[in-house]
Amino acid sequence: MKLKMLMTAMFAGVMMLAACGNDVNTENKDYGSQEEGDDEIRSLEVDLEVPETAEAGDTAEFTAHVHSNGEDVTDADKVRFEVLDADGESLDMIEAEHSEDGLYTIEYTFEETGDFTVISHVDAFQLHTMPEKQVTVE
């Protein structure tokens, strides 16, 4: 008798949980990486270009080529370059503006010698990517 009541209670619990489940409507699902009215799934790719070596006190150029689905992105939501020291501590975060053909460029002057990491933080199409490269400053 107790087993029958336990089984009935478990069955009722499972039925209540099933009734509270999400109603999935795949036609209007928001994938988060699509533009409104755009049926194409977007990708976000960034080719980060920084010099392998630089001289302390000289200006270095950092460039992020932002593209999606084979096309240049000229209207990214945000493109920023972050410079970290050898210990991983953030030294600077600089926002870049679009110059041409999906290129976002800044100039930066390293004050000290050492090994540094440059990370480009790029936001577009509700996506975020952050490729990084190393720079040795002599």
TrEMBL record:
This is YtkA-like. Keywords: Signal. Residues 40-121 form the YtkA-like domain. InterPro entries: Filamin/ABP280_repeat-like, Ig-like_fold, YtkA-like_dom. Residues 1-21 form the signal peptide. It comes from Salinicoccus halodurans. Pfam families: YtkA.
